[in-house]
Structures are given as C-alpha cells and as structure tokens.
Amino acid sequence: MTLAYPMSDPRTARPATALSDAFERLGSRMSYGRDEEIYAQDDEAEMLYRVVRGVVRTSRLTVDGRRQVGDFYYAGDLFGLEPGPDHRFAAEALTDCEIHLVRRSAVRAFAGDAELDRAILEATRQEMERLQEHVVMLGRKSARERVASFLMSLAQRREETHVDLPMGRQDMADYLGLTIETVSRMLTQLQGDDIVEFPSSRRFQVRKWNALEALAA
Amino acid sequence: MTLAYPMSDPRTARPATALSDAFERLGSRMSYGRDEEIYAQDDEAEMLYRVVRGVVRTSRLTVDGRRQVGDFYYAGDLFGLEPGPDHRFAAEALTDCEIHLVRRSAVRAFAGDAELDRAILEATRQEMERLQEHVVMLGRKSARERVASFLMSLAQRREETHVDLPMGRQDMADYLGLTIETVSRMLTQLQGDDIVEFPSSRRFQVRKWNALEALAA
DNA sequence: CGAGGGATTGATACGTCTCAAAGCATGTGG
DNA sequence: CCACATGCTTTGAGACGTATCAATCCCTCG
Fold first, then answer.
1. In this structure, are A52 and A115 located in the same domain?
2. Same structural domain for residues B151 and B177?
3. Is A187 a domain residue?
4. For residue B15, what pLDDT band results from cuts at 50, 70 and 90?
5. Residues A91 and A163 in one domain
6. Structural domain that includes position A63
7. Is A164 helix (H, G, I), strand (E, B) or coil?
8. I want to staple B32 with a disulfide (CB 3.0 to 4.6 A). Which of A19, A142, B36, B166 is the partner?
9. How many CB atoms lie within 10 A of CB A171?
10. Are residues B48 and B147 in the same domain?
11. Does residue A156 form part of some domain?
12. DSSP code at position B208
C-alpha cells in the first residue's frame, strides 16, 4: 500500500477490536503514570503507539523554554507515527495511561496486513489534517475563536451533553498558542455569553451550538 | 511499502532524474500562469504534483476571508499529497509554473516502483515536519522571530549569497500569520540591525548568520 | 482547619493590527 | 524621454488584543 492509494472512508473503518488484535499479536502493552514520558523529543522513532486507556499529549520545548503542545490522543488513537527518523515532539501521559506499542520493524515484517496498514494510513491522514487545522487556527484565529474551536472539537467527540476536560489550563494554553490567563478569560467570557457552561473547571456543557460553531469557524 | 517503514535518508536520495522519469512515464505536464489555480480547496485529491519550474503556494481561505498560506513549493518538490480524500488547501502558481501531474490511480498501479514510493514517502515526511515547524512558529514565536525563521529557511535552500524572494509581502504575511505591515516593519528592523540586507524588496542577503539563527530558534 | 496547587481576576505593559498617507518601482501612452 | 497611472512596499499614529505580574479565589487533601 502506498500513500498514493485512495483513502478508506473513516466512516466505514472496521471495529477497533481487529486493530487491537494486531497490536496484541505484534507488540506489547505498557502503563504510564500521569506526566510520565513515553518518548522524548528527538528520540529515534522506532515504535508505533496506540492509546488503550487514558490521554496522551505531544509537546515540544524550544531552547528558551517555550512550549507548544502538538495534540492530544484518546483511547483508540494511534500516535508517534511521524514518518521521519526521529520524533519532533515528545509524548507524555496526560493522565495515567495504558499504551500498546509495536516496533516498526514488526509492522514492516507484517506489511500487507490490510487491517494494520489501513489503520496506519488513516491515522496519518488524520494527523496531517489536524496539523493543517492547527496551522490555520494559530495563524488566523483570535483567542476567543481558538478556545471556542477547542471546546467544539472536544464536544464533538462525545455523545453526552457534559464533556470532561482531561487537561489543565496550561495544556490548553500551550496547545492554543496562548497564556493560561487568556484561556481562562475566554472561558469566562464564553460562559458569560451563555454559549457554554462550566459546572466545574474540568467539566463543561455546550449551551448554544450555533454560536459555538460560528466562533469556531 | 508502508508508513511504518524506516525512512530513506534524504541525503542518499537518488538523483531527481529518476523521479522525473517516473512522472514522465506515468503522468503529464502542465503549464500554469501566475496566480492560476492548480487545484481548489476541497477538490478531490486524485493527482500528485511535482514542480518542474516555478513556485507553487498552497493556501486556505476561511469563510470570512482570512487567508492562511500552507507552504511554498519549489522545483523538484512534490505537493498535493495529503493522504485524505480531498484537499484542505488550494494550490496556486505563485509564478509561472511547469508542473508534472500523475493520477494516483496510476501510481497505485505501479505501486512497488521503489523510486516513486520512496519519493512519495520522503515528501510526506517533509510535509509533516514542515507542518510541525509551522505550528511551533505560529504558536510560540514573535513577529520578529517568524520573519527571521522565514528568511533563514529560504537562505538555507540556496548556496548563493543573494536570495530571491519569489513571493510578495502579502504571501509572507499570510504564511507567517501576520499582517503585511508587520512583516515590512520586521524586515526593516532586521535590516537596521544589519542582520540582513535588502538591495531590493525582492532580494536579500544574510549578513549575520549567527544573529539570524539565534532569532529563528 | 489550614496548606497547596490550580484557576480566576485585576491593572498595566507591550506587541501587533488597523487605517491612512507617502514612497518607490514598473510600465504605458503622449 | 517624460509624465503619469498602477500596484506593491514602507512608514506613521493610534486602537486593540493578548501578555505579564500580582493578588485573590476555590478545591482538594491532609
């Protein structure tokens, strides 16, 4: 399978159990505690990772200590699949995590496993798409819009009315290219406009989808 | 070949002629005039593209008219290879261009052509890496640093002391997430600090590599 | 009940944007 | 060859948004 192959439609993807099986067969399982490092920035990229339980954050630190969060990964997501020789971003356990790992060499040996190939390609597709969205957001959106987009994307993942924020304000800020104070102020604003409601700082509910969507644009 | 395959080292890549041959064999050649559209935002992605001559820009327009430039592509670069079903960014000829096109279906039929597979994978690798850099830049760098990074990356491409800017200030601004005025001011600043010199608005020379590198960090 | 860490709020500083004008090339027609 | 129109770039003044620094609040946990 090459990159030029037409994509499988994500909506028709097979149940995660098959993919889980592939990882089980070829790889191993690890546990990480909150804030534990899974791989470091500039480490050689020789594994693929899949979140079984918990949330993972990728991040990059500049020489002078500024931090940019790359993305957050949830149960079922593949990560660490940059095709380059080493990781540009570190990966850390945002919460306690269980992770499936598989050596790339093992994947290569099984190249042709349609299930696994498809999953990797689909994850790569998503990764690029999310990177592109991230670029647009950071390049052209205001603080208010960024925070709205962020809440929106979290809310879209779940069916429930109430959404849990697995990350703190600092992680949000570093993902959104803002400071913790600005994030906090925007949340307060959005709540003031009754677009969203925070019963606690780690839990929210969308009240006006239209308004939120319009902002997230 | 799968994405999990270890990367070829870019420094050992074969001469471009072989790749050029592959495109010649499988695809066709097109010319585009300045500012002509090569593909539109949200078009189906069914081709791969390779710049033969000229410079290509990818860009995305939000509903309310804000523009984000994704990247610039020069002679030899592959583009339009997002693995998704359609293009998130449009591609336009920044200058008059000659482009090699090849249908993805043709590539697929020839899957296993090591040369082409390798080139696609390598281009994908670069694409992701550049996207990640872009995210860090937009998320965490000041205007001065962004402009410095941009000049740096252009200067690194060439051997010569003088570098031509194929794009205008607006394109730079939209790539860097700034306004045209801010870009202009930062250029004036960098010139004032004797880090860089502009004999004309479309041509520059680096005077203090260290200083530029430090800023680009 | 008090301590500690994250979150919020406030006041102010700073950086970038906005709007407007002027400068500078390039090309065209007189 | 000049005069002017055009489009891009630079410069300026002021407004606005986000960062910074500091204080307070609020939860959770001991």
1. yes
2. yes
3. yes
4. low
5. no
6. 10-127
7. strand
8. B36
9. 21
10. no
11. yes
12. -
Q: How far is the CA of B47 from the C1' of D22 (A)?
A: 57
Chain B, 126-165: which have a CB under 8 Å from a chain A CB? 127-129, 131-136, 138-140
In a domain, B160, yes or no: yes
Task: Kindly report the CATH number assigned to the domain that includes residue A70.
Answer: 2.60.120.10
Q: Supply B138's token pair.
A: 């937009």
Residue A200 belongs to domain with CATH number: 1.10.10.10
Q: Is the pLDDT of residue B12 over 60?
A: no
Q: What is the pTM of this model?
A: 0.92
B16/A contact by beta carbon, under 8 A? no
Please tell me which of the candidates B1, B117, B177 has its beta carbon nearest to residue A138.
B177
Spatial separation of the C-alpha atoms in residues A10 and A41, rounded to whole Å: 30
CA distance A187 to A184: 5
Q: Which of A179, A202, A11, A28 is nearest to A99 (CA)?
A: A28
Chain B interface includes A124 (CB < 8 A) = yes
How many structural domains compose chain A? 2
Q: List the single residue in B83, B132, B139 with the smallest CB-CB distance to A124.
A: B83
- Asked if the structure places residue A29 within a domain, the reply is yes
> Which residues 154 to 173 of B reach strand D, CB within 7 A?
168-170
Lowest mean pLDDT, pick from A70-79, B91-100, B115-124, B171-180: B115-124
**Of B127, B157, B183, which residue constitutes the final position of a domain?**
B127
pLDDT confidence bin for B16, thresholds 50/70/90: low
Would you call B135 and A135 a contact, using CB atoms and an 8 Å cutoff? yes
Query: Could you tell me if A109 lies within 8 Å of chain B, comparing CB atoms?
Result: no
Q: Which residues of chain A have pLDDT under 70?
A: 1-16
Q: Which residue has the higher pLDDT, B80 or B159?
A: B80
**Is residue B162 scored above 90 in pLDDT?**
yes
Residue B34 backbone phi and psi in degrees, to 5: -45, 130
